[in-house]
């Protein structure tokens, strides 16, 4: 498949996850929005504001990939955190509308990209090179992992199920996000029907670590200690 063909498949999964988010946030009342999330120090209002600003920031990267004009995710190094803090102080209605509207802006922009833009180059918040297609992978990771972080009825088994075939994409992206320094591991996720998904991490003779898709996704994203995985589970570097 070409980058454009892969991107169109990824975009449909992003749309589905955005629809899931829209259903979830519309069920939150004022108290629920401002209650703690599963992320230390963040209320759900912080998390939802982050999800919305991430959509806009990744949209900037799609524009960069399309036009070749440098358009960073955030205007300054402090703009991300400042936007989250400011956003978290809003009413539930404003935050919910922001999550839905920003998701629609992102998918509308992505749908407008010409095929060649999916191979276009940009740089993420850490300065690493990304293509337009890889921007969609990042959005998939954000919208699946943070559903669990919302602490409103989703676990990693459910999140991995929502990803469907793109589950492999999100785990691969999570592994790549660590850069160097990962332990040598042959990571294996086994579906309920016995289908296996494998990733090789780090250098050297790997330890084999096996688990359900949900357990693998939780561990590789720093949300699980690996106690539900089989094998000698090594510690991972700090998740970004």
Shape: globular
* Total strands: 5
What's the number of helices? Answer: 9
Q: What is the chain-wise order of helices and strands?
A: HHHHHEEHHHEEEH
Main pleated sheet? 3 strands, mixed
Average pLDDT over all residues: 96
Low-confidence stretches: none
> What is the first-to-last residue Cα distance?
30 Å
Which terms would index this structure?
mainly alpha, single chain, 53% helix, 240 residues, globular
Could you explain how this protein is built, in words?
With 240 residues, the protein is mainly alpha-helical. 53% of the residues lie in helices and 10% in strands. The chain is built from nine helices and five strands. The chain has helices at residues 3-25, 30-33, 44-67, 79-88, 92-112, 132-149, 156-163, 167-177, 213-220, and strands at residues 121-123, 129-131, 185-190, 196-201, 207-211. It has a three-stranded mixed sheet. Helix 3 crosses helix 4 (79-88), helix 3 packs parallel to helix 5 (92-112) and helix 8 (167-177) runs parallel beside helix 9. The longest helix is centred in the N-terminal third of the chain and has 24 residues, at 44-67. The radius of gyration is 18 Å and the shape is globular. The mean pLDDT is 96.
Write the topology of this structure.
Layout: H1 3-25, H2 30-33, H3 44-67, H4 79-88, H5 92-112, E1 121-123, E2 129-131, H6 132-149, H7 156-163, H8 167-177, E3 185-190, E4 196-201, E5 207-211, H9 213-220
Parallel strand pairs: 3-5
Antiparallel strand pairs: 1-2, 3-4
Helix pairs in contact: 1-5, 1-6, 3-4, 3-5, 3-6, 6-7, 6-8, 7-9, 8-9
Domain Mycothiol-dependent maleylpyruvate isomerase metal-binding: 14-150
GO molecular function, one term: isomerase activity
Keywords: Isomerase
């Amino acid at each position: 498949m070409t980058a454009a063909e892969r991107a169109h498949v990824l975009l449909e999964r992003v749309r589905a996850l955005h629809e899931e988010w829209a259903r979830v946030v519309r069920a939150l009342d004022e108290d629920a929005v401002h209650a703690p999330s599963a992320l230390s120090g963040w209320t759900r209002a912080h998390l939802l504001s982050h999800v919305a600003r991430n959509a806009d920031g990744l949209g900037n990267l799609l524009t960069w990939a399309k036009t070749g004009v440098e358009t960073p995710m955030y205007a300054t190094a402090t703009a991300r955190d400042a936007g989250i803090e400011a956003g978290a102080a809003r009413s539930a209605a404003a935050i919910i509308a922001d999550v839905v509207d920003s998701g629609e802006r992102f998918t509308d922009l992505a749908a407008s990209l010409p095929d060649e833009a999916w191979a276009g180059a940009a740089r993420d918040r850490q300065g690493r090179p990304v293509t337009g297609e890889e921007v969609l992978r990042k959005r998939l990771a954000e919208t699946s992992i943070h559903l669990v972080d919302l602490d409103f009825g989703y676990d990693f088994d459910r999140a991995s199920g929502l990803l469907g075939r793109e589950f492999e994409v999100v785990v691969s992206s999570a592994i790549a996000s660590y850069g160097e320094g990962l332990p040598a591991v042959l990571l294996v996720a086994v579906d309920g029907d016995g289908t296996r998904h494998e990733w090789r991490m780090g250098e050297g003779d790997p330890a084999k670590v096996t688990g359900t898709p949900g357990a693998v996704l939780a561990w590789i994203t720093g949300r699980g200690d690996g106690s539900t995985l089989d094998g000698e589970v090594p510690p991972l570097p700090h998740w970004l």
